Amino acid sequence: MSDTTLFDVVLGFDMETDIGSYTPFYEGVQFGTPPILDVLDRHGVKATFYWTGHAAENNPDMVREVAARGHETGCHGLFHETLGDPIFPLPNNWPILSSEVEGRLEIATRIIEEVLGERPVSFRCPRLWGSTQVINTLEKLGYISDASFPLYFFGEPFVPYFPSNDDWTKPGGAKLLEIPNFCDLEMQSNDPYQRDRDQWPLFRTKSADVLMEKTTGFIDYVAARQHRPVVCFYLHPWEFYPMPQGLIDFGECSVKPLPFIVENCGPYAIGQFDRLCDLLKQAGGRFVTAGDLGREYLNQSN
């Protein structure tokens, strides 16, 4: 990566139940969020925290603490549910009915506004499973940025864009900025859904240095095509607090996440995130919230 390359960094934290949809607990939000905030404070950078309505309603003090520390409060849906088009199959995880999407987004937005006293303007779909209906609904609700685009699956666009109201994966005339979540665009994938190209969860299953190699490759790829790179990350508070390593029992059933899902959650993840922030700063990254990036792009387009 050239020393003169300029790039933006959007740090996004999806504030949800522990291990995504696989538990009803909020230990990550309660105990993983404070060390995240301490790392961000230490580096003097701002991030966007995407809250589900349920997470915000059940952790109002933490919502307000995150905002008080200067970070953006975004929305992550009502629950950790499939709002858009699923990319790969998951058991017992049917998409929300099309007729329900707008209502659930309205409720989630209202809950966060009531908890914080401020309406969110940035959004991210659970699992990055967005859709054209979602971006049209978000635009109607007054959102200005959406960071749902899974670049590992679609491959392009690889820079932020205003999507088409007819196809959210293509540029068009919407006034909502779509921010792709970066990935390795040059590796040969061995997965039918190309998940091995993705950034997550390399920072804790490998290291911050390994993830930074992927980041640098993406920055060079975009800069070589005469665009300003925007490196958008997605992380979760439960990754920063030790998660169960075996079966999670619910009486009538048990859930056992694959080892990589919960590997190195807790102190190792905190240390590697600290290291990642340092590496991004050394490389010249400009940290910006998703909402501020949306405003900048909108102003440039006018």
From TrEMBL:
One Pfam family in the UniProt entry: Polysacc_deac_1
SUPFAM superfamilies assigned to the protein according to its UniProt record, in alphabetical order: Glycoside hydrolase/deacetylase
PROSITE patterns from the UniProt entry: NODB (PS51677)
Tree of life domain: Bacteria
Domain NodB homology stretches: 7-171
Name listed for the protein in its UniProt record: NodB homology domain-containing protein
Lineage: Bacteria, Pseudomonadati, Bacteroidota, Cytophagia, Cytophagales
